Amino acid sequence: MGAACAAVLGVAGGAVAHDLTAVKLVNGQASVEATTYPFTATYSFEVTNAHPTLPSILLTAVDPLLALKGFVFPSLPVTIPVGDSVTVTLPVVLDSFDDCETLALLDGTLDANIDNVFTATFDSGLAVSTARVTCATPTPDLTCGAATRTIGYYQSHLVPLTACLLGGPINLGGLFSVTTDIGLEGVLWGNPDQFLGGTPRSDLDRARFLLAQQIIVATCNQRLFGASPGTLITDAQAAIAGVACGGMDTLTTQLRAFNSSCDAGPFPPLYVSGPSTPLAARALGVDPSLPSLGTCAP
């Protein structure tokens, strides 16, 4: 039998291989339920040397679904002494049910569970482990005013994005204007840490990109639902063209809070949401952002 047969996959914990075991947990458990939002799912990825007498070398450690949320296992390959382990943690904040559901649909199964697989490889085999987050549907909120939705909603729903663009291009403070579904999904699905070709983003470009995502979401919430963020959008458009990264981070947080402020509110009458199709939406998007020459202000 091949080396791949050294792994045993199970939702409830780790998988034993000849030299390594892998255990992934979320909030310290094999399975949790997101019942209120925002919900923070803190994943831990532990790889342990199970050989009785020799060190083992961890060659790769991947979790493709959580790579979308910034998962990286650093300093590979790494030698793990007998009886030792290495652990990486990753907090994932799910602002709304839409954020949770979008990830759940991306794992390949059409249900409300995020079941992603962590795989660690070494010379003589591999070890795998999974952990589950179940996305609970929130109780509708009839008191919060005009509806809003978070980035997960617009990542997975193409019909609202098309309707949003009927209001004209979305101006990202002179950085660039988004005029098509391709560009919109490209920014919404883009990697804050690197450009489309894999070039790392500078701290300035990262701050601008994260703010651009929230500007898009807030603009669509305003256009589609009449939700009012006050001056936050215009303030963000002015800030994104500058180099004050701290100010951009503050506005990103404020817009993110606005975008989740009525995420369980009902849609307006006759509003058409369309199906949730995150795989198709992600495949459509092309990130239009490009590297800048600036740096963050001290």
Describe this structure in words.
This protein has 298 residues and is an alpha+beta fold. It contains 9 helices and 12 strands. The protein has helices spanning 64-67, 97-106, 151-156, 158-165, 181-189, 203-225, 232-240, 245-259, 278-284; strands at 15-16, 20-26, 31-34, 39-49, 56-58, 60-62, 78-80, 85-94, 113-122, 125-135, 170-171, 177-178. A hairpin with a 2-residue loop joins strand 9 (113-122) and strand 10 (125-135). The longest helix is centred in the last third of the chain and has 23 residues, at 203-225. The protein is globular and about 65 Å long. Mean pLDDT is 91; it is low at 1-17.
Estimate percent helicity. Answer: 25-40%
The coarse overall form would be globular
- Tell me the fraction of residues in β-strands, as a range: 15-25%
Number of strands: 12
Tell me the series of helices and strands, N- to C-terminal.
Answer: EEEEEEHEEHEEHHEEHHHHH
Termini separation comes to 58 Å
Q: Mean pLDDT score, rounded?
A: 91
Strand order of the largest sheet: 1-2-4-8
The multimeric state of the shown protein is single chain
Count of DSSP-assigned helices: 9
**Strand count, sense and closure of the main sheet?**
4 strands, antiparallel
Task: Tell me the Rg in angstroms.
Answer: 21 Å
Structural class assignment: alpha+beta
> What low-confidence regions span 5 or more consecutive residues with pLDDT below 50?
1-17
Brief digest:
The protein is an alpha+beta fold. It has nine helices and twelve strands.
Summarize the topology.
Elements: E1 15-16, E2 20-26, E3 31-34, E4 39-49, E5 56-58, E6 60-62, H1 64-67, E7 78-80, E8 85-94, H2 97-106, E9 113-122, E10 125-135, H3 151-156, H4 158-165, E11 170-171, E12 177-178, H5 181-189, H6 203-225, H7 232-240, H8 245-259, H9 278-284
Parallel strand pairs: 3-10
Antiparallel strand pairs: 1-2, 2-4, 4-8, 5-7, 6-9, 9-10, 11-12
Helix pairs in contact: 4-6, 6-7, 6-8, 7-8
